[in-house]
Amino acid sequence: MVAIFFCASILFGSTYVSANEAIDSQYDMEQGGIQTFYETDEQDDLVVTEVSEDNSNARMSDRSYTVKKSKLLKWEVSFKVAVKNNKITSVNSSQFKAITGSFSSTSCFKNSSTKATATGKYKLVGFTSNVNVIATISNKKLTIQ
C-alpha cells in the first residue's frame, strides 16, 4: 500500500517521508495550489497531509488555506487557516471524521499569530490516543505537524 502512494507521490510531485525521518510537511505559500505529503508513522500506518489554497485569486498577503491530515482507514482532521502578511488571523471550519472508531473532546484554535492547533481524542477498540494537527507559519511556509 505504501508503495502505491510512494509511486503516486513521484508522479504528482508530492513528498513521501518515513517515520524514522523527522521532517514536517511544509507547504510553500509562494508556490500555492494543492501540496500533498505522505509519511508513515511509528505503527507503520500511512499518514497523508494535504494543504490547499482556498482563494488563489486573492492578494498574497491575504489568503486562506485548508489543512487536512488523515491516517489511512482510521481518521481525518481538517480546518481552515486565514493568513494575512505571514500571520495567522483566524482558524475555523474544523472537522474531525472517524472512519473507524470515534472522536471526542475535539477543539481547534489559534495559539498565536504563528500557530494553530486542532486536537481531539481518538478511540479505537478500547484504546484512546491524542490526535494533534499543528500548523505553524514562518517565512511564507505553512508547516504541518
Labels describing this entry:
single chain, 145 residues, mainly beta, 6-stranded mixed beta sheet, 11 strands, globular, disordered N terminus
Describe the 3D structure.
By secondary structure, the chain is mostly beta strands. The protein contains one helix and eleven strands. The chain has one helix at residues 2-12; strands at 15-17, 25-28, 34-40, 46-53, 62-71, 75-84, 87-98, 102-112, 115-124, 127-138, 141-144. Strands 1-3-4-5-6-7 form a six-stranded mixed beta sheet, with helices on one face. The longest helix has 11 residues, at 2-12. The chain is globular, with a radius of gyration of 15 Å. The two termini are 22 Å apart. The model is unreliable at 1-22 (pLDDT under 50).
Give a short summary of the structure.
This protein is mainly β and 145 residues long. The protein is 8% helix and 63% strand.
Strand content: over 45%
Low-confidence stretches: 1-22
Order of helical and strand elements: HEEEEEEEEEEE
Query: Count the helices. How many?
Result: 1
Strand and helix map with partners:
Elements: H1 2-12, E1 15-17, E2 25-28, E3 34-40, E4 46-53, E5 62-71, E6 75-84, E7 87-98, E8 102-112, E9 115-124, E10 127-138, E11 141-144
Parallel strand pairs: 1-3
Antiparallel strand pairs: 2-11, 3-4, 4-5, 5-6, 6-7, 8-9, 9-10, 10-11
